[in-house]
Amino acid sequence: MELERSGAGTWIPRRGTPPIARAEGCTLYDVEGGEWLDMTASFGVACLGHCDPAVVKAVQDQAAKVMASPIGLYTEARAELLGKLSQILPGDLNHVFLCNSGTEAIEAGIKFARLKNGRRGIVSLKGSFHGRTLGALSVTWNPKIRKPFEPILGDGAFASPGDIDQLNELITEETSIFIAEPVQGEGGVNVLDAEYLQAAERICREKGVVFMLDEIQTGFGRTGTMFAHSEMGLSPDLMAMAKGLGGGFPMGGLAYTPGIHEALSPGVHGSTFGGNPLACAVGSAVIDVLVEEDIPARAAKMGDLLRSKAAAALKDNPKVREIRGKGLMFGVDLREKSAKYLGALTAEHNVIALPAGQTVLRMLPALTVTEDEIDRAVAAIADVLS
Q1: Which domain holds residue 188?
Q2: Are residues 318 and 238 in the same domain?
């Protein structure tokens, strides 16, 4: 197709799928009238489903008012969003830098940590994924993604999740920041142990290291609570957020404590489009729906349902090593590579899922996914793995 010849060349198009013309909820409609069950919410960003009425209205209303504003001026939309974030952000995360993506939030976090303690060392985890820009790559574990661009930020080290002794050795007085995802998404839907992260925070406090959590994928209800770490007994200095915050509209943010804020000064960081009125209006609309309809609790319930149905359908399948996840982060770990089964889901059932590592079939459906849609997805997985 002409579309494929003129494409970016940095991703693999799904062969044979016509261009998508419109979307609603968990369903995509192509230009030929075909329907596709999207169990990815477009990498988890459409947390309320595609074209949620509240999100659409926010875009339409704000577009008719103001879409861009100088960063030095507060707009009504930005002030409203910051007020709503202050009501849901946990702990002492009282300040927010608004940007356009999760990767940008990670970049800001690394810079802010260096300003805070003047150090350069970075420790993250094996299995981690924090983005593809050079700074974010330095804390992303996957060698296939990272190695072609080395050397990047130096003084980096990767710890094995669960090994507290190793973490204590790697985090030193030269370390600036430790970064972790409460649930590793791209790395295989690995739910980290709360006691391990508590130990990591304690070590950071003892050695003057900034403790940062990446809630880009887990935040805004995805794991069954507004933020995954809030039920793990953790108090990060920095928290990256994105994806669900914009309900499908590009948006990211970095939340941080007064201790980090006092290390900043005008001009140390910035963003042309970060905190633009259009994105802020959407973020406010998303938070309203999440809170008023208690969407995180719904995600917890539907996530339990998805895992229980999958466990029943796949219980005797020798290809399945484990079913895991939290809330509506769902993964099926296979004893072989998942790529051909992901292709079969699309080609044979019009169901779209994601890889996570080489062997995990991952789903990040909208938090509004229905039981019928879950049944269809589970039946499709069972069929292609049969």
Answers
A1: 54-292
A2: no
Same domain, 124 and 61: yes
User: Nearest CA to 244 among 226, 260, 230?
Assistant: 226
Domain end call among 238, 273, 292: 292
Q: What is the pLDDT of residues 15-62, one digit of tens each?
A: 667 899 999 999 999 999 999 999 999 999 999 999 999 999 999 999
Tokens 């973020």, residue? 283
CB 236 within 8 A of CB 212: yes
The whole-angstrom separation of Cα 214 and Cα 197 is: 12
pTM for this prediction: 0.95
- Give the residue among 302, 277, 303, 299 at the shortest CA–CA distance from 289: 299
The CATH number given to whatever domain includes residue 9 is 3.90.1150.10
User: Comparing C-alpha atoms, which of 162, 143, 218 is closest to residue 185?
Assistant: 218
Residues 37 and 95 in one domain: no
**103: which residues sit within 8 A by CB, 6+ positions away?**
130, 131, 132, 133, 136, 252
- Contact at 8 Å (CB) between 133 and 127? no
Residue 71 near residue 97, CB atoms below 8 Å: no
**Side-by-side strand order, sheet with 20-24:** 20-24, 27-30, 35-38, 351-352
Total domains in the chain come to 2
Q: pLDDT tens digit string along 162-198?
A: 999 999 999 999 999 999 999 999 999 999 999 999 9
Give me the phi and psi of 166, to 5 degrees please: -65, -40
Q: Which residues contact 83 (CB under 8 A, 6 or more apart)?
A: none
Q: Are residues 123 and 171 in the same domain?
A: yes
Q: Are residues 12 and 34 in the same domain?
A: yes
